[in-house]
Specification:
MetI-like fold; 16 helices
């Protein structure tokens, strides 16, 4: 045996690794894939040059009004001139620092969640769900610690879109969990009430919910109690989204094997302890794609608040394009709004994929 020498493993062929290997595996692995790859390259050849010419090479990047945009390309001067309206709405310019501070806190609390090695990321996440909403509200609204009060009618733009989405996401998830548990409850009254709530709100479009929240909700309040339009919209969005979230979570609960429930009972755990420590963590992990998909739909649906007089980022764009100084310029504003939505929706989808990979423990087939 002493005459034998251990030989190291040979490296894989160069054609199966790196860029070449990726191309062979994903683009030209079969005749059909090769055919569609060439079709895609041909479409890129046809579409990419004119798009780049319009967006960059022939575009106008500076100017005071629409008269500066005399070329055939995009008029990015419009976005540049109205960028504060698109981001802050009608928020007072001298108070922009408060909104910027909220944006900075949002980045500080959420960006660490994308990096596994970031220290204290757990505490950043807890702060994002507990302290951050209250600090942000008082910073934006003011009327405390010497900060000037800013009415909600002045809130708008991308900041309003983020506020509505954040509140809707944070509030809809716990309400959805309770509704899902209630729908699976053994108590007939609780189960019936949850079913009625879920099916009622899932059976009407969000635009109707916003109209009802804006017009009808004040009629059900005690005399002397009133809510502003923003709070009414938030209540409508949360109730509407909670119903959809409940069905997503119910799907996760039904996917848990019966043996998990029996094991929790065998350990002597109460209903709430078994749900908190055994069932719900597994169910939420299974339905991460559905939860994030619901969040993305909510983020995009916030544009409907325009119909009740709230100007989110899309509403701010529409209010800017009617300015006579920029007559005929509109496409660039809509492209900016679409880019904002894409950035946040793509970020949420990528984070959900990373979270799935991190929490994967063998359920995937």
């Amino acid at each position: 045996m002493s005459g034998f020498k251990e030989i190291a493993d040979m490296p894989p062929p160069a054609s199966t690794t790196g860029v070449v290997g990726w191309v062979r595996q994903n683009l030209v692995s079969t005749p059909m894939n090769t055919f569609f790859t060439f079709i895609g390259l041909y479409l890129i050849y046809l579409l990419l040059p004119p798009v780049l010419d319009w967006a960059i090479f022939s575009a106008t990047f500076s100017g005071e009004d629409g008269a500066a945009c005399t070329g055939t390309g995009a008029c990015w001067a419009f976005v540049r001139a109205r960028i504060t309206l698109f981001i802050y709405g009608f928020y007072p310019s001298e108070e922009y620092w408060r909104m910027n501070l909220v944006f900075a806190l949002l980045a500080i609390t959420f960006v660490p969640q994308f990096f596994d090695a970031f220290p204290y990321k757990k505490w950043f996440g807890i702060f994002s769900l507990t302290g951050f909403p209250f600090i942000s509200f008082y910073l934006i609204s003011g009327d405390i610690l010497g900060l000037a009060h800013v009415e909600t009618e002045s809130w708008g733009g991308l900041s309003l879109t983020l506020i509505l989405s954040f509140v809707g996401i944070i509030a809809a998830l716990p309400f959805g969990v309770l509704l899902a548990l209630g729908r699976r409850s053994n108590m007939p009254i609780i189960r019936t009430m949850c079913i009625i709530f879920i099916e009622l709100w899932r059976g009407v479009p969000l635009i109707s919910v916003l109209f009802m929240a804006s017009v009808m909700l004040p009629l059900f309040l005690p005399e002397g109690v009133t809510f502003n339009k923003l709070l009414r919209a938030m209540i409508g969005i949360v109730m509407f989204q909670s119903a959809y979230m409940a069905e997503v979570i119910r799907g996760g609960l039904q996917a848990i094997p019966k043996g998990q429930y029996e094991a929790a009972s065998a350990l002597g755990l109460s209903y709430w302890k078994s749900m908190t420590f055994i069932i719900m963590p597994q169910a939420l992990k299974l339905v991460i794609p559905g939860i994030v998909n619901t969040f993305i739909a909510l983020f995009k649906d916030t544009t409907l608040v325009l119909i009740i007089g709230l100007f989110d980022v899309l509403g701010s764009v529409q209010s800017a394009i009617v300015d006579p100084a920029w007559r005929g310029v509109s496409t660039e504003g809509y492209v900016f709004a679409a880019f904002c939505f894409w950035v946040f929706c793509f970020g949420m989808s990528r984070y959900s994929m990373a979270l799935e990979r991190k929490l994967h423990t063998g359920h995937k087939r």
